[in-house]
């Protein structure tokens, strides 16, 4: 099924949003978790991302970006709010009514274990993540999307709604700042 077909199904029946959730939750959650390093906060931010998407899905239309890029944009905006405000979010996951809560909880638990093992086995990753968190948000975003999420410059530019030249400049400056911070540690 194409994204356009899925979008039409969701607009006709909001219960079909579960398909979108199943398809994109894990990469969106991983993107958020690798930025925050905190499982519970990441779960809250991911919940906010998908709740925001569900609330605005009827106004989404293809304008040169895919649903996946749109979700990454929402997640990036939610991360921006998280880092800017530095406040704990309500646990929206507990308020969302899922048909199969046990399956969802198992899915979250499996992801938590997998991602925590990844972090535990990569001390250097933790060092880099700590240094990355000290950079201005504009650099954190481009470095995270490029190197943690494996996005190419064109897709990052779409997600962050900027031209590729600006992105390349931010990426270059951000990497230089990150190298300096990591060498100081």
List the helices and strands and how they pair.
Blueprint: H1 3-12, H2 17-36, H3 39-56, H4 67-85, H5 92-95, H6 101-120, H7 123-133, H8 137-148, H9 153-160, H10 164-184
Helix pairs in contact: 2-3, 2-4, 3-4, 4-9, 8-10
SSE run:
HHHHHHHHHH
Question: Mean pLDDT, as a whole number?
Answer: 82
Range of strand content: under 5%
Shape: globular
- Classified by CATH, the class of the largest domain is Mainly Alpha
The assigned CATH architecture of the largest domain is: Orthogonal Bundle
**Uncertain regions spanning at least 5 consecutive residues:** 87-93
Radius of gyration: 17 Å
| Residue share in helix | over 70%
Number of helices: 10
Largest sheet: none
Say what the CATH topology of the largest domain is.
Rna Polymerase Sigma Factor, Chain: A
How is this structure best described in words?
- There is one protein chain.
- The protein is built from ten helices and no strands.
- The protein has helices at 3-12, 17-36, 39-56, 67-85, 92-95, 101-120, 123-133, 137-148, 153-160, 164-184.
- It is globular, with a radius of gyration of 17 Å.
- The protein folds into two domains: 1-121, Rna Polymerase Sigma Factor, Chain: A (Orthogonal Bundle), CATH 1.10.1740; 123-185, Winged helix-like DNA-binding domain superfamily/Winged helix DNA-binding domain (Arc Repressor Mutant, subunit A), CATH 1.10.10.
- The chain is 77% helix and 0% strand.
- It is mainly alpha-helical and 185 residues long.
- Helix 2 (17-36) crosses helix 4 and helix 3 crosses helix 4 (67-85).
- Residues 87-93 have low confidence and may be disordered.
